[in-house]
Amino acid sequence: MHWLKNDHWVKPDLKRYRWLLFWSLALGILTFMAAGALMFTSGYLIDFSARMPLFAAIYVPVVLTRAFGIGRPVFQYLERLTSHNWVLKVTSHMRRKLYQVLEGDAAFLQAHHQTGDLLSLLADDIGHIQNLYLRTVFPAVVAGGLTLIATLLLGWFDWLFALWIALLLLVQILLLPWWSLLVEKRRKSAQKRLNQEAYVALTDSVMGLSDWVITHRQAAFVDGAVAKPRQLAASMQRSKQFQWVRDLIGELFFGLIAVSFLVWTSKYWTGGKLIADWVGSFVLVVFPLNQAFSGVAQGVSEWPTSRDSLAHLNALTPVTRPLPQQLPAPTEVGTLTLAHLNFRYDQDSEPLITDLSLTIHRGEKLAILGPSGMGKTTLLQLVLGDLTPTHGQVALDGVNVLAYQDQRSSLFAVLDQSPFLFNTSILNNIRLGNEQASDEDVAAALQAVQLTDLIARLPQGVNTPMAESGFDFSGGERQRMALARILLQDAPIVLLDEPTVGLDPLTEQALLETMFTVLQDKTVLWVTHHLQGVSRCDQVIFLEDGALTMTGAPRELAATNARYRRLYALDAGEA
Amino acid sequence: MIDKRLMRLPGMRAVMMMLAGLTLVQAFVILGQGHFLALGIVHSWQLKTLAGLWPLIGWFAAAYALRQGLTWLKNRLAGHFAAKTAGQLQEDLMAHLFALGPRAVADAGTGNVVTMALDGIPETQNYIELILIKILNMMIIPIVLLVYIWVQHPVAGIALLLMFPVIILFMIILGYAARDKSETQYAGFQQMSNHFIDSLRGLKTLQLMGISRQYADNVYQVSESYRKQTMGVLKIAMLSSFAMDFFATLSIAVIAVFMGVDLLAGKLALYPAMVALILAPEYFMPIREFGSDYHATLNGKNALTAILAVLAAPLPTQTDALTALPAWTSTSTISAQDLSFQYSGKRAGVTRATFRFQGFEKVAIIGASGAGKSTLLNLLGGFLQPGNADSDQVNGEDATAMPFAINGQPLPHLAQENWQAHLSYIPQDPYIFAASIAANIRFYRPDADDEAVQQAADAAGILTWIQTLPTGFATRIGEGGRGISGGQAQRIALARTLLDTDRSIWLFDEPTAHLDIETEAALKDTMVPLFAGHLVIFATHRLHWLNQMDWVLVMQAGQVVAQGRPADLAQTSDAYHQLVHEMRGDFDALAEK
Asked: Could you tell me which residue ranges the ABC transporter domain spans (chain A) (predicted)?
């Protein structure tokens, strides 16, 4: 139970909306009480009527029978609505909390790529906690409550018998769940691992299909693809077989309760004719309660999954970063200076940037070239202030950029390889750049990036959702949308991180044309993977192993540097 | 009620008959259980002794235990059959995908295919189990119980009989409502969780725009507004199951009251009334159980439909039409005459392409994106078959058309085992399997020894890098393994190809398009000498490769608009000139200044 101590994902929500929680549990108990009471009063009604009393005498049981008959479905309906409402309310809070935790996590934000899988996993964790409430906690609490009530009611008549029944019910709510947990714990974690492996195996098979096809090894392919899923299925099958056996045992124990009541009523309720009318009631009340207990063991055996998710979420401890005193952003921006910049992630890792110094004046265009993995993106992160240099600093008119982190978006704009566009309308996506922008401003930005024609062709214009089926925006079009967003943001310094990679040369050429036109007045740092368009820049630097190996104006380099000439010729198709 | 497609599954009929038999037995056992329970209650009610009650208790307990035992047995039988069938379906599915090739996967979407094979199979399994257990229960048990109750007390029998169609009616309404509502509800849930994942993915962007902090409230608001919508839907969706429950419990209450009145009038003995009361909930039990699993059956049905659709896709025939191709030599030829392929939808394919390559030529295919370069490569690799993608006939509108010829032998398509054995295909992002580097290089030749693997890695220019790794060739790469760069992935794919010396026909689909210029230059230095002794067919929009090529196909909107030696084309072809000029873009524009 050590997880309970450090938990900050379940406990706050149990307190929040506690009345809603109380009612959904109370209604759950009432549902089964009404179901039991229906059989109880019906049994009495029939037993009693068989004595042929006056009609008036059976009036009360008749009314009660009808009332409980209606009560059970009504309670169940209300219970379902209340519990779902509660869980969904809690989910909203958990989502905001997860978002806030990640938003405050410097490490998460620095990571260059966040794989969708990781994020889906985190979102799944919240789903597992929903299940914890709906499938494990609620049924267990309802069954526990019913056990308590049944024991107290029976204890009023015969405490020894009440004790015996309590013992049999404890088998249902403690012994069988405990046994399931014990048996299933290891199997569940194996299944989780196998599921992951099956996913990898199937992905490998499907993604690598063209390589497989030309080998003509169909048997090896099918075996490789289905081996893990088959193991997973076998393990799931063992789980099911266990569940069937466990449920059989549970039912047999339940049968023992029914038998106990038959014996008990025969001994306790046969003292006289009037008393014997209660025999049917006491025996029949047992059966509808079965359903309240049958789901408990299964729910509890799912606890390991929820526990993993809880542990996962509780382990999220955001990394915050020490920053200097934050300053308001300057209204005028001049020179960006990189002075003796050094960076490595920690003492043991290789240096990524070594003693790099550079000055970029207002409005200048700088191209950054170099093999991948040689620190180009790291350099941009340092300029942006996402990373803190090990030595040296990046300064804007003499002030360390780390002091502007709170106001950063008014100084720096970024366009990278695959800009993120939200699953909302084009208008909303572009307006993210500046939420105060008028429709005219947005239209002007779209005009500048030459998207006006494309948008005019869409049925809903700028209000077209990004994910609308049938419109697959191309890489170039998506980059233009992101560029429009940046134009609205209107930051004086723009960082471009290989925005044209993966585009064909014609699209690339057109996009570069647009980019350099609309960013004419901005300071631009452009990381690029080849030399197309580099001639438009004022300065070119080559980064290799974190250091500058070539630097100069493009024309200068073309005249004096053999290596530059060779790469240029290759890129131009002349080599 | 029972999906006819399921009945076609091998062994389904036999299992179903057996389970129907067991369910019938179980129905009588349930009857017996109710009978002895009622007798027991009447016994005590008559103030008789416990001694006389024991045999009744014994019979009741035996019937009860037998009933539960039968449930277990039915679960085992149905579960075993469903698992076996689902496993077989999965194998068939993968085998069929293999035969259909990568295009079929690309059309369906990789993610969809993986989901189908991973989640769709258990859903189908579940569906088979539900059909075998719950639907049979619903079809058999209520009838047996109804007949008995009718005999005991016709009024109760009539009440229960009348209630059944009412419940079925509600189930149909529930079915329609649930189909619509659950779809909107599911779409809502999906949208909500997608919006949330979307927010997490876009967090970095939001931060760059300086609005990440206030966006937290948006996350909450959106989640809350979906909650309100969802609750609105649930209120109605659950109303149908409420109605079903309501009629079931109310009818129990009603027959209790009816029988009370009859008993009062002395028209009825206690036993028939008691047994009817005990069996009434059992009568409704199967239908209520089915109702609670209704959604699972919908999912299973959809999954089965998707799987059967893949299994129904026709496979290429005549894959062994090419009689023999022991090796690709300097005199071997491959030619195409009026080769066409049309995708379904607007996307352009290839129209009437004609060409002939011989021996170890180096051929470039150039053109703007969407011009049909990749389609042509896929046709050459045998991953696509000529013709119309919409047509049912795999080999096109005219199954007798022979657009290809290898060494003069006419062929309908190139999904030929003897052709593909000499082939290697390297796309822009070669697939790296989740395995060791050595296993990745050995992919075409699992039996190759370590020395050969090392030589291949050396020739592909990646040996030095592998040797710097702490675990060398045993290093795991691919999903879940060490990340590698695009250039390294290309080199591993190259080593993979080099290891299998039978593979002397190389198809490249823009292998260097997304690499940086220095990596590209280094990779090119490695690749060009290796081209010797291979037929190389190379789709690219990087112009510098043309200097290494013997022959160039210029493609435009699916057509081969010009072909010839690069030097000749530069002299004679306007299309070639135009394309090269556009691709050079800035390089020309600035040179002209």
From this structure: 336-570
